[in-house]
Specification:
6-stranded mixed beta sheet, alpha/beta
């Protein structure tokens, strides 16, 4: 009796050997409806599939992680591609909307075909929405990737009804309106600082809004400082200090040395509270004790306190 792995492996081999004989146009039995848009699942020649690109020619906003591709490849070698890649027809080929890592893993495994869910009649914005929504909920999405998605939503919708757009993004991606703005501000950082946010050298969630108000030159000086000293993290307190300096000294040039000085200022000594010593008070109130030493005053205070409490005890009894 064949094991599940053997059956799946044999199934994948059969799919590949029959790929050339598949008439994709006759795959009507797979026809379905998804949110009113026709879709069908077929085996496609992997060379007829291309990664997603925006209408402006940019690559998909999500970075391909080789480690994830390799992990998926291990599973695909054993079980085949378990979840179809989502594509749309574009001219004489197909464009991936979801499943880029599965696509690259299948190529790594040497597959010549891959199961695909074809979505027809998809316009560019709907395609972008599918790309965004199929990726943004994953755990390993970078801040800059979310930023690109959210900004595209806002650009596409326009600013006529900004609140409605923010509410739509918040509902779809499970973030607050404030967080959406923080992501969008991230794209105002220099090309050198954005990867530092993605790599958690610069903390995300608040400081990108401060850094976004600096000039690109000032931001790059901070990047120079981080790289020069090979910092693993650039704490928020440093960001606050540098941004405050730039705000207060707008006419002065920011340099790497200045950033160093700002981040390594000696800690201010705690201001000693000016208080009147008990001994000074006693000397003021009782001038005859002015020449007495502190030890003598200590002995007198202890003696008087002892007599005081002894007298109280006597009254109580």
């Amino acid at each position: 009796m064949c094991s599940l792995l053997e059956r799946r492996s044999q199934h994948q081999e059969n799919m590949q050997s029959e790929a050339e004989n598949i008439n994709h146009e006759l795959a009507a039995e797979y026809l379905d409806q998804w949110q009113g848009t026709a879709q069908r699942i077929v085996e496609l020649d992997i060379n007829s599939i291309k990664p997603y690109r925006t209408p402006g020619g940019k690559e998909q906003p999500y970075k391909i992680r080789q480690s994830k591709v390799e992990r998926l490849a291990i599973s695909i070698r054993d079980l085949g591609v378990l979840q179809p890649v989502i594509v749309r027809r574009k001219e004489n080929e197909y464009e991936i909307l979801a499943g880029h890592h599965r696509y690259y893993a299948a190529r790594l495994c040497g597959l010549t075909t891959i199961p695909c869910q074809i979505k027809d009649n998809i316009d560019d914005f709907t395609a972008y929405m599918i790309v965004a929504e199929s990726n943004t909920r994953t755990d390993d999405v970078l801040p800059s990737e979310n930023a690109e998605i959210f900004k595209t939503y806002m650009d596409k919708r326009g600013m006529d009804n900004e609140t409605a757009t923010l509410n739509e993004i918040s509902e779809k991606f499970g973030v607050s309106n404030t967080t959406v703005y923080r992501y969008v501000h991230l794209l105002k950082l220099s090309a050198r600082l954005i990867p530092m946010v993605d790599n958690k050298v610069i903390p995300f969630g608040r400081y990108e809004m401060l850094l976004a108000h600096l000039s690109e030159e000032q931001q790059n000086i901070i990047a120079d400082y981080i790289e020069m000293y090979d910092l693993r993290t650039f704490p928020g307190k440093y960001i606050n200090a540098v941004c405050a300096y730039c705000d207060e000294n707008a006419d002065e040039e920011l340099t790497v040395d200045k950033v160093y000085d700002i981040c390594h200022q000696p800690k201010a000594k705690k201001t000693e509270q000016v208080s009147t010593s008990i001994y000074t008070k006693i000397s003021t109130m009782f001038p005859s004790l002015e020449s007495s030493s502190q030890d003598d005053m200590d002995d007198l205070i202890v003696k008087l306190l002892a007599e005081h409490f002894a007298a109280e005890n006597t009254l109580d009894t």
